[in-house]
Amino acid sequence: MQTVQKSATKAWSQAFKQPATEFPLTPLSIIEGEIPASLNGTLYRNGPGRLERGGISVGHWFDGDGAILAVHFNSSFPPSEGGTKGGNASAVYRYVQTEGFKKEESAGKLLYGNYGMTAPGAVWNQWLKPIKNAANTSVLALPDKLLALWEGDNPHALDLQNLDTFGKDDLGGLDNGLAYSAHPKVDSQTGEIFNFGVSPGLNATLNIYKSDCTGKIIKKAAHQIDGVPLVHDFVLAGGYLIFFIPPVRLNLLMPAIGLSCYSDALQWQPSKGTQILVCDRDSLDIISRSETEPWFQWHFSNGYIDDSGAVIVDIASYQDFQTNRYLKEVATGKTHTAAKSSLTRVNLNPQTGKVSNIETLFDRHCEFPTVPQQNVGKSSRYTYLSTVKEGTDISKEILNSIARFDHQTNSITEANFGENLYPSEPIYAQGFLLTVVYNGNSDSSEVWIFDADRLNEAPVCKLSLPSVIPPGFHGTWKE
User: Fold this and answer.
1) DSSP string covering 46-81, please?
2) Whether CATH 3.50.50.60 fits 11-478
3) With 70 as the cut, is the pLDDT of residue 124 above it?
4) For the chain, domain boundaries
C-alpha cells in the first residue's frame, strides 16, 4: 500500500484526491482481533465519493456524488480471510445511480449546479438544468429497501444487499417532488417514521411527514415559516416533534437567476434568533412557536420529556455559521476556517416553547451526536459522538476521534486513535460501536469495532476494506 509522505497538507486530504473506487460484495480480511459472533446485521454509510469530473472540482463537500458502503456481518459468506474464530463480514461499495450521476458519467464532465456550485456555462444555463440530487447525505434502512437521502428532493431506493439503485421513491406521498430530509426519526416501539422537508418560496413551507414502518407516508402537514431558512435536522421527544430554526436565511433571488449558488446566498442573521416550533407527533399540528438566542446547528443528538414534563434537547451547536465555509474548504483538501461546536442541552416548555435553560455539556468540538436507536425520543444515558483529540487545530483537521458522553456522571470516555487516523460517525449496534476509519498513514480504509462499554480500550476487531472510503456523513445499522 502507498505510504503518505508528511507535508503541510494534512493526511485526511489524500482521501479526497481521487474519486472513490467501487467494489463488489467481497469478504473482508481481519487486520487484528476477531469479529464478534453476536454481531448480526448490516452497517450502511453514505457520503460524497466523487468531488470532481473532467479535472474540475465541485464547489462544496455537500456537492459530491453519493456512494454507499454496506458491511454485512455474519452473512452466508465464509469466515473472513485471516481469521477462523468469531464471525465473518463482507462489504460492497457503490455509487448511487442517480440520473444526474449517470448523465455526468456519460459526458465525462460536470453538468449540474448544486448546493455549493452553479451549473457550468452561461447564466441562462442555470435555468435550464435542475439542481442535481446527489443522494449523498444519509441512509434509512426499511424492511425491503435502503433509502439514500438528500434533503432537497425525493430519496433514492436501493437493494439492501448489493446496493443496486431502483430509482427515486416518493414513499407514496412525496408528490410534486417534495423534499425529504436526511434525518428521519424512527420510533423503535411503534415503528413510525417521522421526517420533514422544506419547500422554498417568499416564505418557505415546512412539510412534515409521518410514515409506517415500511416508509409509506400515512400523514402530512404543511406549515409556513419565516423566510427561507436552512433546516437540516429536527428532534423527536416523546409526543413532540421539535424544530429549532437557526437564523440563516436564503436570498432566494440570487440562485433563482443563476448569479449565486445556494451556499453563497445563505446569510447569517443573528437578530432573528433561533425560532422554535413544537408539533404534536400524532396530528402534526403546531403546539407552540417561540424564539430564543441565536445559534446554528446541523445535528441533534436526541430529545425526551423529563419527569416535570419539560422537553430536554441535546444539540451540537455553533455560535455562528462559519461551519459552512469550513465544510466548503474540506472539498479542496485544505481548510483554514475554525468552526467550533459544543454539545449543548436546551430545556423548554413544550406548551409555550419557552426555553428555561441552556447549558454546555461537552465543550470540545464535536459533531454527529447519536444515541442507540432504541432510545430515540426517550432518555438515554449515553450520547455517542465524533470529536477531535485534545490539542487538535480544528481549522486544519477534520474530526479525528469518537467518544461517549455519560449523562449520569457528566464524563467523557474517548477512543484512542493514533496520528493520521480519521474515524467516521460512530454507529451503535448490539452493544458495539462501529466506525469506518480512513488511515492516512497507508491511504486505506478500515472498519473498527469497539465494545461500547470499553471505548477507551483497543477495538475488538479491525477489518480491511478493498478501497478508500472518503470521509462522509451519516450511516445506520439494520439487524
Assistant:
1) EEEEE-EETTEE-SSGGGSEEEEEEEEES-SSPPPT
2) no
3) no
4) 11-478
